[in-house]
Amino acid sequence: MMELATPDTVKWLLADRAYAVIAVAMATCTIYDHITTLDEEIELVWKRRKWTLVQIFFFINRYTGGGLQIYTAFVLVRHIAFNTEESCNLLGILQGYLATLVAAAMQGIMVYRVSSMYNHERNVIITLVVAFAAEIAALLVMLVIATDVSASFPDPAPGVHLCKQDNMPSWSWSNWLPIALFEAFILVLSLSLAIKYYRSTKHDSRAMNSFRNSLGYILFRDSITFPLM
């Protein structure tokens, strides 16, 4: 006689499939974005005569992140379709290291933007680089330790085998703490300069209107909203 699935089993099976569907949706959006903006990318990025570190960060962010999303969707769909956990451990490891690489590239661009807002002051550059290096070092140490720790995530319900990394200690979620702290630091630097500039121009409508149409305004706006994205 066939045993009926428990409510918990059904719930987790649906959640497992929903996760795969979300991954496919994200990969689809990524591919669509790449196709629809490729002409602008070629014109504004590829055709630049002199390559900079910011361009390298851009390509890491755009193509490593996109490739990881597509591979994630592939592994999760195969996991659902064939009830296999093949490549799940590799996916977990890649997600950890490549997501760190993508985050570092995004934040590297923000470091340059904030440095530009401060006219590349030496003290600001040193502070940003030290904070950035400390964040990346902390993330890498946590990833290495997590990979070596023997702590598997148990199956949440009978008959449910999630696509997961073999070693997943309970404190893995804390990997986001260094990222959150660094982005909070970026936000504070951006806000402090924005407030300072606002106070100096709030009684000068001409200067304020001119600022809103300037590159500086774009840097302020994007640097402040970036940590909230």
TrEMBL record:
Stored Pfam families: DUF6533
Membrane-spanning intervals of the chain: 53-74, 94-112, 124-146, 176-198
DUF6533 domain residues: 22-65
Keyword Cell inner membrane: no
InterPro entries: DUF6533
Keyword Nucleotide-binding (UniProt): no
Name of the featured protein: DUF6533 domain-containing protein
